[in-house]
Design brief:
Radius of gyration: 24 Å
CATH architecture of the largest domain: 3-Layer(aba) Sandwich
Distance between the termini: 56 Å
Structural class: alpha/beta
Number of strands: 20
Largest sheet: 15 strands, mixed
Number of domains: 2
């Protein structure tokens, strides 16, 4: 009953603000919101979103792991909802599903890891406690005994005159890497406080492999990674997944190590970790080989399988203009599946239900699809809805989608993504990190203001959130894209309350079996952000007003795609 009460109150407030928006006179660059579009936005209900989340987060779906029975059930459920809404299929062979081929590898418990100092006994490393590691090559086994080269942040960025690999040869060796990127307040140097893709762990592994390394050890530090070791352990406790058709170089040991392990490793090499962590942020740092070697026997169970993105389309009404203003809405449906049995015999919950991450995004996507399909006014240009797989495995489903879009990338005006929207009440602020990188941002500001939503800057820009969700896969092919989420301010609470809720979720439920659907969750936040997304989607579809800001790292990609026949 509490959920229904909050939803009704949120609906009334939304009706008032959206009616006012529909009556706002047109500006020189953008029209007023049509009444039928305002009505479609008003029709979005928190209870329907909550019902979708409840199903997707049920134990029946077994954590929606990529390529598992539960994940396939989720995909079929979403496809069915798209069909019920009357959307056209936009997947493979006239269906809603876009098949993606994967290789899955799981590091077996009998795998062995050790550090070999120049003298004395090997130092064993405990899997999960000291190190997590996966073999990207898809081989059953890998045996490594190789020198370790400390390469700082492991970044090669010519535009910033930065090369951590300069002067060293790491072919056949293992690189030791500091997570994140050089600290900066200069927006012209690694964009200042905001992380670039160079700081992401995915980039670290990609670059290490390009340099010819056989393995990489990323040093985990909570403050730099923005999440604790438990998140790393849980994320890597199951199967690691790779695109089967990805031809890039691969590592035999793509690994993270605990901060104290790195401290021990460097101390055995006569180095001080704390001093090096300061040095790697400066141009004085030079990569060097350690006298300690890394030894590993990595046994992997390997499977080849398929999973699916789910893609649907609502046609546009304007047949007279070039089809270059399609809009995508995206949200990943996968989560972490079921944790391996630890053999203790304890009857603990091992299902990663993923209610917030990302049942909420899927619920929003499905409610947006329904509202758009039932709108009396169609969008001027096509609207696509894509629920993608394998986000938790490194944005792989959206990466495949971005490279195999149903229309050319330069025909897509905007991607709006939803990921882990907290169901904790009516928001008064939002985060749209990355929207400011686009020419669409003034419209985002105006619509947010009209809905009594303040735009908050990214509270933790150094965490690199822009590169950690599926909109990034669209940006990589030149499509303007960003995610929509709540800020810290909620009705009836100070911002400190919102910050405490965020911390509580990150500490106690994020990537844990405790991320479950509960009847007292308040999905008015999800509904309000869905209404915002519907209106933004209409404006993006209605005018030639979306592009990257000059100088943005993705602007050249968009320019190249515009020249593609």
């Amino acid at each position: 009953m509490k959920l229904l009460t909050f939803a009704a109150a949120g609906m009334a407030a939304a009706t008032l603000s959206l009616c006012a928006l529909a009556q706002t006179p047109a500006t020189a660059t953008e029209p007023a919101l049509p009444p039928d579009i305002a009505t479609a936005a008003q029709s979005i209900e928190a209870t329907r979103i909550a019902a979708h989340v409840k199903f997707l987060a049920d134990d029946l779906l077994e954590g929606r792991g990529t390529g598992t029975r539960g994940g396939d059930i989720a995909a079929q459920y979403i496809a069915t909802q798209f069909a019920l809404a009357g959307l056209k299929p936009a997947g493979d062979n006239g269906g809603y599903l876009q098949k993606v081929r994967f290789i899955g590898t799981h590091t077996e418990p009998d795998s062995k890891f050790a550090l070999l100092p120049p003298s004395g006994q090997p130092i064993p490393l405990r899997l999960a406690d000291d190190i997590v590691s996966g073999n990207e090559t898809g081989a059953d086994t890998a045996d490594i005994e190789a020198p370790i080269v400390f390469v700082g942040h492991g970044i090669v960025a010519p535009e910033y005159q930065w090369d951590d690999y300069k002067g060293v040869d790491v072919k056949g060796k293992v690189v030791l890497i500091v997570v994140n990127e050089p600290a900066s307040d200069d927006p012209k140097f690694f964009t200042g406080a905001a992380m670039t893709y160079y700081g992401r762990w995915t980039y670290k592994f990609e670059e290490a492999a390009r340099q010819g390394a056989v393995g990489a050890l990323i040093i985990h530090k909570t403050e730099l990674a923005s999440y604790p070791w438990d998140v790393v352990r849980s994320s890597w406790s199951g199967e690691e997944v790779y695109l089967a058709d990805d031809k890039r170089p691969k590592l035999q040991a793509a690994s993270w190590i605990q901060l104290e392990v790195a401290r021990l490793l460097l101390a055995a090499s006569g180095k001080n970790l704390d001093e090096l962590l300061k040095l790697v942020d400066t141009r004085d740092f030079k990569a060097f080989e350690l006298p300690v070697k890394f030894k590993a026997h990595i046994a992997s169970s390997v499977r080849h399988f398929e999973s699916s993105n789910v893609v649907a389309m609502l046609p546009g009404s304007d047949k007279n203009t070039a089809n270059k203003q399609a809009v995508f809405y995206t949200a990943h449906y996968d989560h972490l599946g079921i944790a391996p049995d630890d053999g203790s015999g304890n009857a603990t919950d091992r299902i990663y239900n993923g209610a917030v991450d990302n049942g909420t995004g899927c619920g929003i996507l499905l409610e947006l699809a329904r509202a758009w399909a039932e709108s009396k006014q169609a969008p001027p240009h096509p609207i696509y809805f894509a629920s993608v797989t394998a986000e938790e495995k490194g944005l792989l489903g959206s990466k495949y989608l971005g490279e195999h879009l149903p229309i050319p990338a330069n025909a897509v005006a905007l991607d709006l993504n939803y990921d882990a929207v907290p169901p904790i009440g009516e928001p008064e602020s939002i985060e749209v990190s990355g929207a400011e990188r686009t020419s669409f941002y003034p419209i985002v500001e105006r619509i947010a203001h009209s809905m009594n939503l303040a735009i908050e800057p990214d509270a933790t820009p150094s965490a690199g959130h822009y590169y950690r969700s599926d909109h990034f896969s669209f940006a990589r092919v030149g499509v303007p894209a960003f995610s929509i989420n709540t800020g810290l301010k909620f009705v009836g609470h100070p911002a400190e309350w919102g910050a405490a809720q965020q911390k509580d979720y990150t500490t106690n439920r994020y990537h844990r079996p405790s991320d479950e659907w509960k009847p007292d969750q308040n999905y008015s936040s999800n509904a309000k952000l869905a209404r915002l997304g519907l209106i933004l989607g209409w404006y993006a579809s209605s005018g030639d007003n979306v592009g990257w800001q000059p100088g943005d790292e993705f602007a050249p990609i968009r320019a190249r795609s515009d020249k593609t026949p």
